[in-house]
């Protein structure tokens, strides 16, 4: 048996692709549901600190002044969010409004809620051994009284931003277009070109 | 018989069904199946590589059905195989060839089809695709902001599965699609009337039923084998409640088909009485021949090929 075959057979269910193919330090290019390792309560507390404000806006601007600063900061973000949320570095983080369950772990990368194929127990239809990221996200958001966030409409992401730091984008207001303010039932939501989609 | 849009707007009990395009470079067999539904259903979904199995495209299938004059097509579009450039381009093409009814869904993952190694595209999700189509129609421009000359005119549909977790979120998710532009919603198989009624009631509470019609999905369990398959829980999104399983297991295996049709007819009659339900969507592909009989059993007789004036639903 070749090494690749052994590796293929021994990799965790739904896990990343064999090491040789995965960009170093990422969870791999595949979208696989990831169970958040940070409790919902802590995640929502963290939100208060990370929300764009004068302090982190200025901090972000300083970091962005040099390519080196940006690189180091992005690597730190990647390391922490990958471990906590299975982050794939789409660069346009939706976590603050998805119960801190990453929608990019959904095999269909659905940003507006679960598909119709969720199993009776909440299993992902593509990776039945994992729970649907949206079932997890709904539970986590509801536990913190934030389920209304899941009624916002999410715009399509900009695929040029993969690999960027979403925190820097968030603080600089570069991802303001990502979601609507509310459920948009009162007046039709505008799709674009608010964001460069 | 008016168009799908007109019937639903008028609050007439509306019936849609499903037609899967063939695996082959001819639409003839599909038109033959469409002929069996003529006069009995108001419009028919032309599926988009259903179950991720390659078939004649829904785009071409819808045009063939449209041109045949047999029945009004609803062109299904999934997000699985095309990015935002191709999707918008196909929307313009459909508009140019007179396709008016569209139905958007995420689409099954390629893993379940005959090309499991295909790249899953999912550049947009079904809500975003619905939103895109509305932008094309109402704002007369592409996502890029570029103007369309002329803009298409579509009747936009979406799907929902009121029975899949998180059940408490399903009406709100449907409302998102309605905010995005959906004007009608077809549901997954309804076997659990309690859950379905609660879902429709919540849509009413969200205040969206006056701008979106609900078509309840109804399917027929045709054999003991099909029952085993559906009850196994292996079919994404399909759940058969215990009482229905018990009822079908209570008859001899040869009679499962007849009992399944009886259950389906009861479902049609039952959902017809739920305020806010505009009609039914028959998930009975391959069952075209028996569809007239099923509708007759449900008290929907269109044998004269005349339009049936159903009772108005509160929601429309």
Key terms for this structure?
heterodimer, A: 197 residues, mainly alpha, 6 helices, 33% helix, globular, B: 316 residues, alpha/beta, TIM Barrel, eight-stranded parallel beta barrel, 11 helices, disordered C terminus
Summarize this entry quickly.
Chain A is mostly helical. Chain A contains 6 helices and no strands. Mean pLDDT of chain A is 86; it is low at 1-27.
Structure description:
The complex is a heterodimer of chains A (197) and B (316). The N terminus of chain A is likely disordered. Chain A is mostly helical and 197 residues long. Chain A has one domain. Chain A has 6 helices and no strands. Chain B is globular and about 60 Å long. Chain B has 316 residues and is of the alpha/beta class. An 8-stranded parallel beta barrel of chain B has the order 1-2-3-4-5-6-7-8, surrounded by 5 helices. The chains are: A mainly alpha (197), B alpha/beta (316). Chains A and B meet through helix 5 of A and helix 5 and helix 6 of B.
